[in-house]
Design brief:
The chain is α/β, with parallel strands linked by helices. The chain has a single domain, classed as Rossmann fold, CATH 3.40.50.1820. It contains 11 helices and 10 strands. Strand 5, helix 4 and strand 6 form a beta-alpha-beta unit. Helix 3 crosses helix 7 and helix 5 runs antiparallel to helix 7. The longest helix has 19 residues. It is globular. The two termini are 29 Å apart. The mean pLDDT is 94.
């Protein structure tokens, strides 16, 4: 069941994968909409645990929650290594956006993604650039493809090796999240960052493509996030985006997941996101 008690919408991507899309409640007044997109190791419930989705709803936004492929109530990988991170970008992202726009009659829409969920939105926008059908994008803890030091490179390499060996990354066993990640989804995302380039299978450089992006952008970093998305790595993304309406907000004392799951985030992080969304939308 969806966050609001009704069954989720069932969507089919261009490559035939069924996705689940949830809505907190139905509105018919044209209010601005926000699509919440989780990152690795979790699903749409990530936004419900500490109440961020309901916080946004109480602020007057029409809140939608996505389950990307292999997560939540969406389809699971049919065979080992069938899907990659780029499938999130090329297939899941435009399918989800199109459905929300259809059901909201084209009301102003923003993408709000955590970690890799933010990167998926950015990469898709780099592809469509000026033709982007959304009014704004917010990322929480989304780092740029910075060159990693020896320790982080070793951890990334180990993540890729374990994922490919097992056919999945055992996030639940390691207490990284409530869902194991499909091997090539997490491996490609890690590989992009190890190489220092978000490079698609067709050679498209997603990170370089952000220079053509004019969609208003708010990057949020956790001041206590020293491993996954340090503020300097999030700043790298903000600096790459070409539009003038862009901003980096560093939330003191918040960790990578704490941007969404910490009660402390309710005091500054979430209100700041709401204020930016309302001003932008």
């Amino acid at each position: 069941m969806t966050a609001g008690g009704a069954p989720p919408r069932r969507l089919t991507t261009p490559d035939g994968v069924e996705l689940a899309l949830h809505r907190l409640r139905a509105y018919r007044d044209g209010r601005p909409a926000v699509l919440l997109v989780h990152g690795a190791f979790t699903n749409h419930r990530f936004w419900l645990h500490a109440g961020m989705a309901h916080f946004l709803g109480a602020a007057g936004l029409d809140v939608w929650l996505a389950d990307l492929r292999h997560h939540g109530e969406s389809a699971r990988e049919p065979r080992r290594g069938a899907w990659t991170f780029e499938d999130w970008v090329l297939h899941d992202t435009p399918t989800l956006v199109a459905r929300v726009r259809e059901e909201t009659d084209g009301a102003p829409l923003a993408w709000l993604g955590h970690s890799a969920g933010g990167a998926a939105g950015l990469c898709w926008l780099a592809r469509v650039a000026a033709a982007a059908p959304i009014r704004g994008i917010v990322t929480l803890g989304t780092p740029g493809p910075r060159r990693l030091g020896p320790v982080r490179r070793t951890l990334a390499a180990a993540t890729m090796a374990v994922s490919r060996l097992l056919g999945r990354f055992p996030a639940r066993s390691l207490r990284f999240g409530n869902e194991d990640e499909a091997a090539e989804i997490i491996a490609e995302w890690m590989e992009w960052n190890v190489r220092g380039r978000w490079l698609g299978m067709d050679g498209f450089d997603y990170f370089a493509g952000l220079a053509a992006l004019s969609t208003p952008y708010l990057g949020v970093a956790g001041g206590a996030d020293w491993i996954f998305a340090p503020p300097r790595a999030c700043r790298q993304v903000v600096e790459r985006v070409g539009g003038a309406n862009k901003k980096l907000a560093v939330e003191a004392g918040l960790s990578h997941r704490g941007l969404v799951l910490s009660e402390r985030a309710r005091l500054s992080c979430w209100p700041n996101v709401v204020a930016w969304l309302k001003e932008t939308l």
